[in-house]
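quick one, 184 residues, struct below
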Amino acid sequence: MLGPILRRLPEQDVDGHLLHAEGEHVVDLVRKHPIVYLRPGAELVGVAGLCALALFGPIQLGWLFLLAGAALGLHALYLMLREHRDLFVITNMRVFRASGVFSVRIATMPITRILDITVEKPLIGRILGYGHFVFESAAQAQGLRDIRFIADPDERDLTIQRVVQRSGLRGPRSAADRHMMEGR
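---
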């Protein structure tokens, strides 16, 4: 039901935030799990109910039901836009989050600053396939600490770990280093 509407919503300009001259490219662009559209969908059902009340309810209150339906519909549209435009991007150099409907907020963390990632999967998230990320870095007060409702969080965690490993920040970087680490 929401699919055709979501395809028409405006996208974030991820490409405009990349450092092309430095060789940065997108490794994974992560949208939120479809569960986040449950509330806007319920509100749209409420809009249909209010419109039905306006048509078949007391005629004196029809304008009030239409007004409430319009307000609820606008709120549902805003919620869909907010969730649709909230992106988590993993590049070969950093992770960043682009969010916002009327104004855009970009929160960035270089791969070198990621100390720890906690993946939280509540029971319903395990069943439906979503989870939450909690990033720990040297600077604790950043805009990229909590990323909620990430689809397939285990795969996204592995992607980030691969990017960190390939950047040479953790673990042995060469075959000689690996042999030395193994005690050979």
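The chain has six helices and seven strands.
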